Amino acid sequence: DIHYHVDRHVYTGSMGSNFVGIGKLLLDSPECDNLRKIIIEECGAKFLPGLPREVAITARSVIKSNLNKVQQKAIFRAMMTENFCLLRGMPGSGKSTTIVGLIRLLAALKQSVLLVAYTNSAVDTVLTKLKEHDSNF
Fold first, then answer.
1. Helices (H) and strands (E) in the chain, counts
2. What is the rounded radius of gyration, in angstroms, for the C-alpha atoms of the chain?
3. At residue 81, what are phi and psi to the nearest 5 degrees?
4. Residue 35 to residues 7, 48, 72: CA-CA distances in angstroms?
5. Cα-flanking dihedrals φ and ψ of residue 116, to 5°?
6. What is the per-residue pLDDT across 30-67, written as a single tens digit (0 to 9) for each?
7. Residues facing residue 95 across a β-bridge
8. How many CA atoms lie within 13 A of 31 on its CB side?
9. Closest-CA residue to 46 (of 56, 54, 37, 55)
């Protein structure tokens, strides 16, 4: 049996959400077990061996025209992810554009997307770029 222990701490302000997040990791559920494996045990990302045919065909028309090869590869890898995917890069390297391509592909595949970010401006940037490509967003 594994037991987790968090010391009692009196806190105020923005740290509250961090402690709530830590508390949720302690729940006994399959989702929290997966999060513990990723965060605490440092389990790496898992990928499917390939893309389903439908994804590859849809991707051709959605992302090939306005993304470079590295961005396209990042989207394909994200679509092959089984548990989690991280997009990292220097400022100006095209992360937002890649995220827009991924959202457009997921929308074309009739998938729902929840876009969240640490700052409101990051969400605004992605939504503005989405609006430039398609007025349906």
1. 6, 0
2. 18
3. -70, 135
4. 21, 19, 27
5. -130, 155
6. 888 888 888 888 888 888 898 888 888 888 888 877 88
7. none
8. 2
9. 37
